[in-house]
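Customer escalation, tier 2.

The customer says the design service returned an amino acid string that "doesn't look like it belongs to this structure." They asked us to rerun it and document both sides in this ticket. The original structure tokens are below, unchanged.
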């Protein structure tokens, strides 16, 4: 039985690697095949915008840590910001390990060392990630320009259905938070864990949801600065680029087979960006954004490791 499980895991990892390789292969192939178009594009490097985007990203990550800290405090465990910063960024790198569970397991393990029960940290982790995903998708739907919906949703009944179902789900979670509490505790019971209740109220959920909404706005501003650093774009494009970044980031996170959303996030971002830029230019921006956000996360990780 163990050998069978081992072989299944091996096949899954091989499948992961193949899918990610195929996505990057076609992205890079598209880029190289249209390199002349890339070279002839009106690039205008502005290092002030590029380097200024990093403090904005890092500040946004700091806000995310504060949100998690507040949710944890609501559950009765008030960790210092320094401890929460360490827990968040050390466990965050688990996203890049295949399996999609290592970030959660790392978060739970590190919080347990700080005296937080596993069931409580699991509940908090799922709650925070759920609100982050919902707010990210919401801002993406809100900011992506209309012809995107016209091209995609108008041609597919099921996509339209999922779109309206998602909006309904967001409203239900905000105005009837007991449902979210019930769902999360159902998951805990299935996993044979102790039930947890934060006595979630509409006011609290709306505050957390709004806080994540602000974080996505800031991420979008940083992404706009990155793009502005290589291509002259208007400030009005900020809204489109914020929708692109939030949508690609969240959908990449939800792709269970891709560690850190690698490949999936870039592919989705290319699709979204191609509404505003030529395909090879969209591809290059997408690949650069991966390097950009990874550098910011690595910096925060090292800060967490050396902070005494």
């Amino acid at each position: 039985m163990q050998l069978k499980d081992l072989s299944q895991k091996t096949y899954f990892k091989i499948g992961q690697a193949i899918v990610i390789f195929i996505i990057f292969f076609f992205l890079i192939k598209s880029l190289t095949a249209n390199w002349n178009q890339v070279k002839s594009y009106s690039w205008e490097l502005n290092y002030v915008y590029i380097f200024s985007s990093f403090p904005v990203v890092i500040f946004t990550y700091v806000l995310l840590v504060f949100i998690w800290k507040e949710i944890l405090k609501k559950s009765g465990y008030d960790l210092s910001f320094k401890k929460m910063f360490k827990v968040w960024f050390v466990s965050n790198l688990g996203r890049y390990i295949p399996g999609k569970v290592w970030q959660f397991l790392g978060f739970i393990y590190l919080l347990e060392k700080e005296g937080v029960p596993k069931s409580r940290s699991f509940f908090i982790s799922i709650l925070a990630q759920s609100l982050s995903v919902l707010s990210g998708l919401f801002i993406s739907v809100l900011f992506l320009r209309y012809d995107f919906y016209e091209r995609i949703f108008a041609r597919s009944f099921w996509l339209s259905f999922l779109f309206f179902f998602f909006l309904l789900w967001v409203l239900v979670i905000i105005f009837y938070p007991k449902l979210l509490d019930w769902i999360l505790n159902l998951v805990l019971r299935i996993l044979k864990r102790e039930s947890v209740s934060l006595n979630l109220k509409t006011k609290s959920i709306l505050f957390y949801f709004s806080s994540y909404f602000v974080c996505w706005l800031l991420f979008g501003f940083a992404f706009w600065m990155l793009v502005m650093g290589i291509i002259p774009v208007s400030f009005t494009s900020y809204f489109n680029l914020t929708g692109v970044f939030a949508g690609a980031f969240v959908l990449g996170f939800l792709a269970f087979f891709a560690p850190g959303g690698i490949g999936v996030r870039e592919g989705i971002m290319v699709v979204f960006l191609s509404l505003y830029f030529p395909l090879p230019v969209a591809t290059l921006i997408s690949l650069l954004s991966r390097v950009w956000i990874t550098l910011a996360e690595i910096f925060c990780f090292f800060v967490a490791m050396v902070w005494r």
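Tier 2 assessment: The sequence is consistent with the input. The mean pLDDT is 79. The radius of gyration is 20 Å. Sent an explanation to the customer and offered a walkthrough call.
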